[in-house]
Amino acid sequence: MAIIRNKSFTDNKPLLYLVATPIGNLDEFSLRAQKVLNEMDYVASEDTRNTKKLLSLFNIYKPLISLHEHNEKEASQKVIELLKNGNKVAYVSDAGYPAISDPGQKLVKEALKNEINVSVVSGSNAMLNALVASGFDTSHFYFYGFLDARKSQRENQLSELKSMQNTIIFYESPHRIMDTLKSMNKILGNRDICIARELTKIHEEYIHAPLDEIINIDETTLIGEMVIVVEGNYSKEELNDEDIIQLAKKMMSEDKTLSKKDISKLLSEQLKISKNRIYSLIINI
Ligand code: SAM
Predict the structure, then answer these.
(1) Position in ligand 1 atom list of the atom nearest CA 196
(2) What is the rounded distance in angstroms from the CA atom of residue 199 to the CA atom of residue 124?
């Protein structure tokens, strides 16, 4: 692939907007999102009925084009033709960011192939709210999205994530939540998680718990939309002296301003092991 530099607003090229929409609370529909959508000739959307409802609440009335996971390829061609013919077009999914566990990625890929610029209007996104409120490490995280609905596939996927030290974020539907939590407890082992439920809505709730306890919670209280944030694997007993030294070296190379004392303190918080032990291991590095 050659280097291609696209200047969203100053190139003389068609521009496809991806516009984030609220994940619950309508006050999160940004002024910029409304303004951009008002300027469009067409709005392509994952579900035209939902989008029509949302836009009409903000007095935005536009011809809608249906573009969902089952027709994304063909509908993308239609959107691209419209853009090439000088029309202004934006894409919205049902909630949050298009292309994040929602349709939109194929559309973007086709647009780029057709020399159409792509720009994003920022807004709500469920994984980020859940992550920042979880209290887990936010400096490195891994977004997994949805696990497979089938138990054996789901458990294989979890096995591959077992040793990951980064915080991991999952999307899940309410009718599978308990099965997923049980699979996580079985495969990942007991560790802390945070379930972020009904984000931005009146019944918003953050449940902080260890996996081996949450699996006994009353399932009927786990309703609505949910994100599961899982703490990275810092399994203390598996960390030997060499592992700790390697982690310290990595930290030192990533931030040269950190002293050995700083590193001992930071690692001690992350790994939940004694600061003095870490310091004595790294003092001579
Ligand atoms: N595009 C969206 C985004 O940017 O966050 C995600 C869409 S995905 C189809 C739907 C999943 O996102 C839900 O099953 C749930 O895991 C999560 N989700 C969406 N809205 C949520 C909310 N208000 N509270 C908690 N989780 C939410």
Answers:
(1) 25
(2) 10
